[in-house]
Every structure is written in C-alpha cells, then in structure tokens.
C-alpha cells in the first residue's frame, strides 16, 4: 500500500489543476474601489471586475501553484508557451494565428509561440519553440528564451518539490542532469540516528534534524493518531495501519510513525504536508530543518546540462525527447518565469551551464510564492483579507485589458449566486444543479437562466463525479489484485450503480447525465454508446449475464442489481444463504463505509445514491455506512492518505486523456492503489502515438481494466456554469461557445464592464 502513495502532489506542468481540491474560507472581504449605482443591487467596485474564487492558498508562483483558485491567479498573471483551441488541440502557428471552426463559427487563435515537431532518424523527437519578440514582463523587461530555459531547469532541479512532474518526461539527457544530488534531509534521514560519517553534513545539522523529528515530527504524527483513534484505532500501530502505514510494530510510538512518513517521502518535508491531519509540518519544526527537505547536496557526478534542451537564439529553443510521447506537446505549455526576478541574473550564463540559480537551490523562487510577477493580462498587486488584487497590464501582448482592475475573492459555495445578485461579485462559477438553476431563474424573474440579473454560460464540466475504492482496504485475504478481491468490489459497485439514474436526476435534473466510463465526456477518448463494446458499467452478474432488460421499472432494476451483487459476493468467497450474506472470507468484512463531502447535511449529488444503496445492502446482510464529512479538507485527507475504504469526489480531466497519474502503478495520484501490469502497459502505449484514432481503443481497453478492478464507479457528468452579472458586465464581450478547454478566462482582455 505504501508504494502507491509516494508523490501525492505530482501533476504535469500542463495539467496542473487535474485534481483541484475545493475549500471554503469565511473571509470574503473586498476593498471598495468606487461607486457605480445599480438600483437595489448597486455595486461599489466601479472599474473593477470582481470574480469569485474558492480555495486560495497563496501559491501564485507558476512553479509551485497547486489549487485551482491559485491557478486562476497564475493564468491571469502569466502567459503560457503553448496555445490550444476550444477542443484542446495545440495551435502550432500561434504567432500569426490559426483560424478553426467550432459549432459553425470560425475562431482565430493566437499565442506567444510557434511550435514545430520533427521525428529524427535516431528515433528521437525534436520540438522547436520560437517565441514572439515583443512580450514584456510586468517590470518592463522582455520575455526571452532565456526565461523559458530558466523555467525548464527549475522544473528539472533535483530538489524541485512543486506539483509539476515535467522532470518525469523522457527528455534527452534529463536523468543524467538530475543524478548526483540528493536533499540534505534525505541524506540525514536515510543515514539514521547513529550515523558517524559527516562527509556531506555536520554533527550539528544531524542533531538539529533528529531533534526536530522528535519534537515537531512527533506532534505531527500524534495528530494523525488522534484523528484515527476518533475513528476506531486503538493505538499508534493500528492508527498508522489505517493511515496506510501497516508495517509499524505493535509497540510503535508517534515518533516511529513520523519516521515512517518521512521515509515514505524521502524526507521531503514539504511533500509530507500531504499527510497532515491538522497542523502544518512547517509550523511544527524549525525553519532551517524544514529547508533541509529541499536543500540540494552534491553526492556524485552529474551532467552539466540537459543535452535535449538547446538555445538556438534569443527567442528560439529546441526540446528533444527519446521517442514519441503524445503528452509531451502539452508539457510545453509552461509559463516562462523571469530568471531576473525568480532567480539571480548574475547566475544566468547559458554557455557555461548556469541557468539563473545554483543547482539544488530554488529558495529564491519559493520565497516569491506570494509576490508573483509574470507577463499576463493582469499584474499582481497583493493578496489581503481573502482577496487577490490585480491591475491591468497596459503592455499585454494581446492588447491592454478593457477592465482596469481584477479582484479574486474567496467565496463560499452558498454565496456564488447571491453574491452576483447583490453586486459583490461580477462573475462566479457555482456548482450547477437543479436547485441552482431554479434559483437563477427565480431571481431573473423570467423562468430563464438568462435575464436582467444573470447571464449563464454552460458547458460540459472537464471532469466527472465518481466513487473511488482503495483496493488495499477493500480486498480479500490481503490480496488487492486477486479475482476474489475484484469480485468483492464489483459487488459493492453493482448495487450502488443501480441507483445512479434516479439520484443524478434528483440532484441535477437534465443538467447532468450518468457516466459509464472513468473519463469525462468532454474528452475525445470518451467511449460513445455507438462504439463497439460499449457497456453500462457494473450491469452483469459474476457469470457475465446482463442484469437489466428493456422496459424494466426502477424497482425491478434495483432487485436485479441485488441478485447480481450476491453472485459477486459468492465469487469473492462470501457465504450467501437464502438471499443474504452471512459470512465474509478472510480479510474481508460484512460492513464498509464510504466518505462523502456533503457538508454534514447531505448536500452532494451522490448522497441520495449512497443512502438508497445502504438500505439495499442492509436487505442482503451488508452494513454500508455513509460518512458525511463536514470539512472538505478532512475528506481529501481521508483518501489521499490511503485511510478511506471508499470516497466520493470528482476528477478534473486534462487536455490529453493520459491515464498515467491516476491509474498507473507508479501514478502520483493513484489513490485507488491499483497495480496491474497489463494496465501499465496500455497506459504507456497510449503515450507513444500521436494519432487519436489509434489511441482511443487503447484507452478504452485500459478503462475496461479499471472497471474490472472495481476501484472506480463513474457517477455523473455535470455541466459547468459561469454566472455573469447582466447588469454590470457587457455580456457580448464575454467568450462565446465556451468549452471545458476555452472558457471566459481565455479572452479576459476583451471583457468589458458597463
């Protein structure tokens, strides 16, 4: 179980936001900047566009940003090298621009760079990136290829601990460059308490390290123990086992537990924060020790540079990879960071293999997380009282924004609609449901989602809602990949799946649909009902016989699902007598629990589905409990830590349907704990072609394996809503024909206030 939980924060540079986690903050203070009478819903922010945010963390440097709200700030503050269109297809001639048709209308897309790709005779692939020469950073300095190279090397650094995994791409010479260096913390931690070799560190550093482990580290682990004991653990060892650290001895202490956590993350204290059950580790151990987790120490020889990264001239570079990787083109969507601002100008000397910082030391960039500087449409001013204040960039390469100021305000979900109505917000993105649609129509007063108060823009959400199951926690005889374990999980999914139609309709009405494959319908790789082999998930018994026939009533479907589930329970080794499960095989149970973030009030699209399924399970002898968690952070921690058996959440899909992060045995967010060699092979094969027609059946086969493991039950594909104030925003200037990959944010410079 431990192996699947290592790199919790790994996201590619092109896909940051794939796993955006929503959070709430009661502080929604905004500073008034003028008067603009609007009757009863007058606004006090004339000239300022006020946008709702959710989950601001204050990490606004492109290198280290993580949450979706922070990424919005980054997107307004920066440009990206690669431009994509409404269908997420790369725009390779972006300097002059390309015109493409969507929904019957031609749209022209322009961007900062042209990109070409060439397959070489030796099997390598070279990408040539040629940037515009007229883009400026907010401090007036030009954006050049040196800034892009600095940014690449920051992502490549052996001590890089942000959410991007650009370093995992097979760029020629990358691994040779990253070798020969470890972090100080990993060296001290792995050497142990009795180390007497001080080649790479001092006795004082070692003493400080272990003192911090014994004090703050122990407190950090004890909070996890306390949390787990509130949920059934009896001691440190059982708490650690429930937190996916099963190998601690029976007499383990909280200090032992923390040492196991540290070792799991190779003593990267920043990465260890993913395990928090309360206090941040950075608040519990001294700053100098915490910094050891990202302090590079040379331990051997390494290449002086990445041979696959070559500067051609001041605005051109090439990136060469070992072979074809369909996802690589999207990795070029990095935001070029100023080496003069985030690094040290005196340390940039390309010819002498110096790239703007000392290898192994990204402290300058980290220190500027809360003071970003980019070249995007808006300049960052400050982040105070839950609000990010930004001002228009008059030198923006696409033209100065029509709006002089932009505020992003931390906003609770309950205020997303009423805030726009009241005039405290101009744009929000409420979670769209039947109730929200009704609320919008009532306030508009015309039984429509577009009216005098609101204008509503809808498109398919880029992700989807699902129920996840941790294979290592729901299995038979401690063997997550056995046929019996798969049968157990499919038994659970078969019952729950039968209630999706009514549950989704009850919560979303016709604004969402039931999903049968673990992929958003917005992706080109999503199977269609007319495709060969398409099937409703978890709709057969253990012998492969279909459970449902045309014309069945809901009650008949539910009864058929229970009959089918009993065959799966029997296949898992359960004893079934007279239509009831009476005994479980070794390692399995007669009761399971699913965590859901319904705010403690059942306010979640999957809550009713689970409740009705729980009643059905009870009728066949299985206790199925629904744990409604009020604090969303606790929900996230429950499955990210590996503690949860089952959970409800939503993925946000990436432009490319690459499945590596979620389902590969080494995937950075493989919370399902799935480990299947055939699946790994398919996922890797899917990366090795650029032809979508050949990749689609590969991903279909891979998704079938995921469903066969029974670790994920796709639930719903919902609509995403952008709510705009009709009273204060010139809605004709808002992006039309929005898609998951081209939203109102993508032409922010054109938006006008009335």
What percent of the residues sit in helical stretches (DSSP H or I)? 25-40%
How many separate helices? 22
Counted beta strands: 28
User: Globular, elongated, flat, extended or rod-shaped: what is the shape?
Assistant: globular
Note poorly predicted spans: 1-43
Task: Give the amount of beta strand, in percent.
Answer: 15-25%
Computed structural class: alpha+beta
Mean pLDDT: 91
State the end-to-end CA separation.
Answer: 56 Å
Main sheet, how many strands, which sense, barrel? Answer: 8 strands, mixed
Give me the Rg, rounded: 26 Å
Task: Record the SSE blueprint.
Layout: E1 48-53, H1 68-77, E2 83-84, E3 90-91, E4 98-102, E5 105-109, E6 113-119, E7 125-131, H2 145-156, H3 174-178, E8 181-183, H4 184-191, H5 203-229, H6 236-242, H7 254-264, H8 269-272, H9 287-292, E9 296-298, E10 309-313, E11 316-321, H10 328-331, H11 339-342, E12 348-349, E13 354-355, H12 363-367, E14 378-384, E15 387-392, E16 405-410, H13 416-422, E17 427-428, H14 434-444, E18 454-460, E19 463-469, H15 483-497, H16 500-508, E20 512-514, H17 554-571, E21 575-577, E22 580-583, E23 591-596, H18 607-619, E24 623-628, H19 632-640, E25 646-652, H20 660-663, H21 677-686, H22 692-709, E26 712-725, E27 729-730, E28 752-753
Parallel strand pairs: 1-16, 23-24, 23-25
Antiparallel strand pairs: 2-3, 4-5, 6-7, 7-11, 8-9, 10-11, 12-13, 14-15, 15-16, 17-26, 18-26, 19-25, 19-26, 20-26, 21-22, 27-28
Helix pairs in contact: 5-6, 5-7, 15-17, 21-22
């Amino acid at each position: 179980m431990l192996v699947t939980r290592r790199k919790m924060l790994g996201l590619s540079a092109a896909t940051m936001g794939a796993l955006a986690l929503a959070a709430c903050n009661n502080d929604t203070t905004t500073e008034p900047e003028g008067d603009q009478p609007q009757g009863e819903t007058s606004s006090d922010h004339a000239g300022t566009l006020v946008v709702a945010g959710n989950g601001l963390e204050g990490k606004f440097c492109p290198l280290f940003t993580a949450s979706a709200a922070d990424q919005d700030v980054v997107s307004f503050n920066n440009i990206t090298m690669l431009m994509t269109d409404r269908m997420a297809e790369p725009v390779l001639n972006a300097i002059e621009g390309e015109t493409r048709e969507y929904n019957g209308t031609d749209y022209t897309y322009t961007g900062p760079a042209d990109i070409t790709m060439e397959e070489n005779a030796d099997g390598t692939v070279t990408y040539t990136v040629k940037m515009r020469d007229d883009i400026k950073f907010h401090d007036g300095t030009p954006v050049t290829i040196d800034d892009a190279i600095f940014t690449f090397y920051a992502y490549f650094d052996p001590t890089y601990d942000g959410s991007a995994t650009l370093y995992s791409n097979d760029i020629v010479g990358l691994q040779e460059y990253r070798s020969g260096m470890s972090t100080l913390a990993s060296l001290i931690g792995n050497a142990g308490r009795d180390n007497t070799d001080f080649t790479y560190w001092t006795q004082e550093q070692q003493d400080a390290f272990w003192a911090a482990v014994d004090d703050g580290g122990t407190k950090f682990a004890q909070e996890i123990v306390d949390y787990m004991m509130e949920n059934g653990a009896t001691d440190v060892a059982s708490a650690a086992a429930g937190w996916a650290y099963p190998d601690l001895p029976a007499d383990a202490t909280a200090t032992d537990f923390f040492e196991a956590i540290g070792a799991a993350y190779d003593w990267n204290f920043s990465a260890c924060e993913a395990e928090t059950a309360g206090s941040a580790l950075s608040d519990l151990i001294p700053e100098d020790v915490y910094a050891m987790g990202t302090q590079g120490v040379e331990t051997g020889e390494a290449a002086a540079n990445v041979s696959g990264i070559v500067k051609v001239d001041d605005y051109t570079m090439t990136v060469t990879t070992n072979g074809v990787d369909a996802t690589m083109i999207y990795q070029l969507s990095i935001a070029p960071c100023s080496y003069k601002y985030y690094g040290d100008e005196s340390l940039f000397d390309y010819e002498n293999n110096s790239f703007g910082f000392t290898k192994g030391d990204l402290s300058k960039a980290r220190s500027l997380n809360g003071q970003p500087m980019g070249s995007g449409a808006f300049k960052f001013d400050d982040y105070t009282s839950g609000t990010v204040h930004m001002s228009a960039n008059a030198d923006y390469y696409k033209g100065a924004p029509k709006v002089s100021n932009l505020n992003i305000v931390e906003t609770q979900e309950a205020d997303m609609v009423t805030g726009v109505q009241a005039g405290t917000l101009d744009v929000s993105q409420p979670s769209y449901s039947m109730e929200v649609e009704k609320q919008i129509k009532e306030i508009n007063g015309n039984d429509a989602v577009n009216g005098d108060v609101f204008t509503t823009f809808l498109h398919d959400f880029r992700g989807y809602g699902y129920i996840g199951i941790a294979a290592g926690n729901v299995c038979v005889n401690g063997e997550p990949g056995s046929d019996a374990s798969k049968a157990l999980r499919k038994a659970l999914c078969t019952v729950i799946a039968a209630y999706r139609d009514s549950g989704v309709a009850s919560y979303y009405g016709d604004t969402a649909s039931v999903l049968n494959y673990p992929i958003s319908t917005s992706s080109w790789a999503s199977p269609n009902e007319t495709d060969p082999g398409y099937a409703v998930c978890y709709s057969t018994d253990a012998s492969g016989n279909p459970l449902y026939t045309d014309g069945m009533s809901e009650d008949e479907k539910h009864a058929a699902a229970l009959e089918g589930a009993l065959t799966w329970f029997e296949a898992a080794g359960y004893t079934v007598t007279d239509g009831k499960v009476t005994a479980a095989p070794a390692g399995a149970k007669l009761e399971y629990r699913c965590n859901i973030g319904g705010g403690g009030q059942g306010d979640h699209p999957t809550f009713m589905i689970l409740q009705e399924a729980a009643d059905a399970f009870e009728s066949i002898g299985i206790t199925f409990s629904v744990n409604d968690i009020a604090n969303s952070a606790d929900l996230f921690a429950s499955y990210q830590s590996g503690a949860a058996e089952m959970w409800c959440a939503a993925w946000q899909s990436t432009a490319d349907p690459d499945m590596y992060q979620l389902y590969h045995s080494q995937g950075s967010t493989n919370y399902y704990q799935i480990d299947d060699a055939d699946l790994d092979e398919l996922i890797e094969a899917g990366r090795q072609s650029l032809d979508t027609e050949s990749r689609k059946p590969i991903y279909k086969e891979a998704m079938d394996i995921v469903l066969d493991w029974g670790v994920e039950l796709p639930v719903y594909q919902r609509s995403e809503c952008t709510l705009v104030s009709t009273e204060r925003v010139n809605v004709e200037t808002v992006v039309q024909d929005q898609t998951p990959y081209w939203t109102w944010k993508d032409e922010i410079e054109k938006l006008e206030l009335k």
